Fold:
Amino acid sequence: MKPNDSKSLLNRLCSTVSELPRSGIRDFFDVVSQMDDVISLGVGEPDFTTPWHVREGAIYSLEQGQTGYTSNLGMPKLRKSISSYVEKFFGVSYHPDKEVLVTVGVSEALDLAIRALCNPGDEVIYHEPCYVSYRPLIQLAYAVPVILETDASDGFRVTAEKLRPLITDKTKVLMLNFPNNPTGGGLTAQDVKEIAALAVEKDLIVITDEIYAELTYDREHVSIATMPGMKERTIFMHGFSKALAMTGWRIGYACAPHELIEAMMKIHQYTMLCAPVMSQQAAYEALKNPEEDIARMKESYWRRRNFLHSSFTDMGLKCGLPEGAFYMFPEIRELNITAKDFALGLLESQKVAAVPGTAFGACGEGHLRCCYATSMDELEIAVQKIKVYIDTLR
Amino acid sequence: MNHLLALLKQNARISLEDAARQLQMTTDEVAAEMQAMEESGLIRAYQAVVNEDKLDNNTVTAVIEVKVQPEREGGFDRIASRLARYPEVTSMYLMSGQYDLMLFVEGNDLRTVASFVSEKLSSISGVTGTATHFRLKTYKHHGVLMDFTNETERLQVSP
Structure:
């Protein structure tokens, strides 16, 4: 075999990896990056920079020379802050020394949890449309992904009723992400209660990615970890990226019973050792007084959500009012065009980027993910251009 | 703070229609609420935030600390209202600490400000002392950064 023969290199890849599809987001990014002056509703992150006191705290820690490894679990003072914050905001209490693991974003925590839990062939139920990494992470752990499809008719909710028929004797894990990327959907307290009861009945472990929790607009966020019998079977995941505008710091955490955290920590210590120390310092600073920062940004997302929703509705684009996160997931089905063609057409004719719903699962067909975490000026222009484009399709 | 006021404090020029869309209100409701806030005196004015350093003139701004002898009747308020009426005074506050009133004074040149202090301010009975500081450069005004550009590169599409 010739070592510089690219075909032979492809042959040598692990088949699980070569069979993984590239993210639909990545494909779309490649097209957008070839163009200038694009107005983008295609991002998955806040348009705010990290609050200044957080950046300043990180700079100070660097000045002080805090550049070494930390404990595998994360700095003790940060774990304490996380534990208090989770107790205060979510109403679940985790022991900072035994039940909290600081990770490189929720992305890493998801990977750790699935690998720590799944044997080859175990079934993992997750809902689509969903964040792009869920299915690949399950596959990389040689587990079997089982899709629960959600749809616009009920605000993209997961209900116990939809969940029950998917559970088999091989089902080990249920993954939840509410408020949801890409739909902006949320769960009612009743939904959460019923899902929890079913998880207890069927003895499932629940991985709950609640990264958008603080950005819930019209009601109180309810974590499934608070439900009776759930704390002992839940891996709760949260981080700093969305509500505190810290995506690039790559810092998040998992809270769970000690046995699960220990298992996840084993993988974490051999692959990551610890989350970057300056990001941990920044996270510690961010949790000193997060309410004000979060409220300021949330107010601004709330206004933009209202603006975009009312603008879409006025132009006849079917779109539920999203309950959380900063995404709108309007329906374009009745224009007789696929999500991908719509997105490409919109980009080429109007230079507005939005992500086709299919990037988040096949049942995202007929939808477009529009992120409203961009300036009001840009949103206004984007709305006008989308209207022009839609009129050409009608 | 109510949603509309928070929005107007950021952008007073927003159209009624945009404000209505952003706040889940009708344009009539926005107009009525604005009018009510104006009439009650909650909203006093709508102004542009200007980077004075970019103006091609010699305008001088001074911050003046003023010590006054409070009056038996009226405390600081009467003397404050006399000072505040001078058009040169652009802002004025009663302060805790080493002095009593802080005045922001603007003049076309140094001499105007100097004569305001020596001829008008110090001659008012009750004023017992002043300290004048001149502004050299504005970094931030009314919550708006003046000269720092914030060019960060954000990916145009991300998950």
In short: The mean pLDDT of chain A is 96. The longest strand of chain A covers residues 123-128.
